[in-house]
Write a structure and sequence with these properties.
CATH architecture of the largest domain: Alpha-Beta Complex
Number of domains: 2
Strand order of the largest sheet: 3-2-1-4-5-6
Radius of gyration: 19 Å
Number of strands: 14
Distance between the termini: 33 Å
Bound molecules: nicotinamide-adenine-dinucleotide, (2S)-2-hydroxybutanedioic acid
C-alpha cells in the first residue's frame, strides 16, 4: 500500500527542496510507495502544477501519485503523515501579533481538517513559523488525534549546532552526537552541548573537553546557532530552504524508523513538565524514538544554573506566544 503523505506550502521554496527526497524514499524507506498530496493556496495553483510536472518528470519508482490541491479536505484525506510547511510570512510593517493571528487561523483550520479527514495515527510535523506555537494551535484544534502525534521542527537548529562544533574541531558532523536544542525555534532557543560527545574511531570525549574553549561554547557558539536563520536571510535575501528540507528529512525519518541506540535528537513536543518546563507548551527537548514511532523525552540529564536560566527564558517566550495565540483560537483542547 502506498503511504499517503501531505506537504503544505507545496509551491514554496522549502517544499521544492524537500519533495524529491520524500518521493525517492529518503524519509519513509527505499521500498515504501508514496502518494503525495500537495496543498497550497488558490493563487499558487499554477506554480504548483509546475511542481507536479517536475515530480512526474523525475520518473521516480516509488511515487504512485501526486495530487495538487487548495482544499484541506482533499489534502488531508486518510493521510499517514503531514509536513506542514505553509504559513503566513512576516511582511513589512507587520507586528508580531498580526503574524501570530494570521497563523493561528491557518493552523486552527488545518488542525480541524486533520481531525476530520486524516488517519488517527497521522504524524504531523509543523515547520511554518512560529513553528512551536503553530504546532500547539494545530494539536489543540485536532482533539481526536493524540497530542504525541504532533511535533515541530527544531532539527535544523540541532544540525546547525552539531555542524558548528564539527567545524570548530575539524571533524565530520557524524562524529558529534547528542547536542540539545531546548525551547523555541527562535533566537531564545538554548543550544546546549554539555551532554554531547565527539567520537573518533577509538574514543569518545565530552564536547567541552574536546573543544577546550568554554567561553566560545557559552558565548559565540550559542549566539551563532540562535542567529543562524537570520544570518542566512541577510545573505540570501530568502530564508533557509535546502538546510530546512534536509532537517525535515532527518526529523521525519527518525520519527518513522527510530533513533539510533544511545543517541537522541531535538524535537519540539508537548511538554509533560519534564525538567520543570511548564506543561501545555510545544518545547524542544532531547528525544529518543522507538521503532514503533513512539517517543520519549530523555530524562535525568543534569542541568547547570547556566542552562536553567536559558531554558526558562525560552519557556517564558513560549508561554507569552501561547497566551497571545490562544486569544485568537476559537476552540481549545
Ligand atoms: P515560501 O514563502 O517559499 O513558501 C510558503 C508556501 O506556503 C507558499 O507557497 C504559500 O503560498 C504557502 N501557504 C501559505 N499559506 C498557506 C496555507 N494556508 N495552506 C497551504 N499553503 C500555504 O516559504 P518557505 O521558505 O518554504 O518557508 C515556509 C515556512 O517555513 C516559513 O514560515 C518559514 O519561516 C518556515 N521555516 C521554518 C524553519 C524551521 O526550522 N522550523 C526553517 C526554515 C523556514
Ligand atoms: C530558520 O531558522 O532558518 C527559519 O526559521 C527562518 C528564520 O526566520 O529564522
Amino acid at each position: 500500500m502506498a503511504l499517503r503523505v501531505c506537504v503544505t506550502g507545496a509551491a514554496g521554496q522549502i517544499a521544492y527542496s524537500l519533495l524529491y527526497s520524500v518521493a525517492r524514499g529518503e524519509v519513509f524507506g527505499p521500498n515504501q510507495r508514496i502518494t503525495l498530496l500537495l496543498l497550497d493556496i488558490p493563487p499558487m495553483m499554477t506554480a504548483l502544477e509546475g511542481v507536479v510536472m517536475e515530480m512526474q518528470d523525475c520518473a521516480l519508482p516509488l511515487l504512485d501519485e501526486v495530487v495538487p490541491t487548495a482544499d484541506p479536505a482533499v489534502a488531508f484525506a486518510d493521510i499517514d503523515a503531514a509536513i506542514l510547511v505553509g504559513a503566513m510570512p512576516r511582511r513589512e510593517g507587520m507586528e508580531r501579533k498580526d503574524l501570530l493571528q494570521a497563523n493561528v487561523k491557518i493552523f486552527e483550520t488545518q488542525g480541524k481538517a486533520l481531525d476530520q479527514y486524516a488517519k488517527k495515527t497521522v504524524k504531523v510535523l509543523v515547520v511554518g513559523n512560529p513553528a512551536n506555537t503553530n504546532c500547539l494551535t494545530c494539536a489543540k484544534s485536532a482533539p481526536s488525534i493524540p497530542v504525541t502525534n504532533f511535533s515541530c521542527l527544531t532539527r535544523l537548529d540541532h544540525n546547525r549546532a552539531t555542524s558548528q562544533v564539527a567545524l570548530r574541531l575539524g571533524v565530520k558532523p557524524t562524529a558529534v552526537k547528542n547536542v540539545i536544542i531546548w525551547g523555541n525555534h527562535s533566537s531564545t532557543q538554548f543550544p546546549d552541548v554539555s551532554h554531547g560527545t565527539v567520537c573518533s574511531s577509538t574514543e569518545c570525549q565530552k564536547i567541552y573537553d574536546a573543544v577546550k574553549d568554554d567561553a566560545w561554547l557559552k558565548g559565540d557558539f550559542i549566539t551563532t546557532v540562535q542567529g543562524r536563520g537570520a544570518a542566512v536571510i541577510k545573505a540570501r535575501k530568502l530564508s533557509s530552504a535546502m538546510s530546512a528540507a534536509k532537517a525535515i528529512v532527518d526529523h521525519m525519518r527518525d520519527w518513522w524508523h527510530g533513533t539510533p541506540q544511545d543517541e537522541w535528537v531535538s524535537m519540539g513536543v508537548m511538554s509533560d513538565g519534564s525538567y520543570d518546563i511548564p506543561k501545555d507548551l510545544i518545547y524542544s527537548f532531547p528525544i529518543k524514538i522507538k521503532p514503533n514511532k513512539s517517543y520519549e523525552i530523555v530524562q535525568g540529564l543534569s542541568i547547570s544554573d547556566f542552562a536553567r536560566e536559558k531554558m526558562d527564558l525560552t519557556a517564558k517566550e513560549l508561554v507569552e506566544e501561547r497566551d497571545a495565540a490562544m486569544q485568537f483560537l476559537s476552540t481549545a483542547k
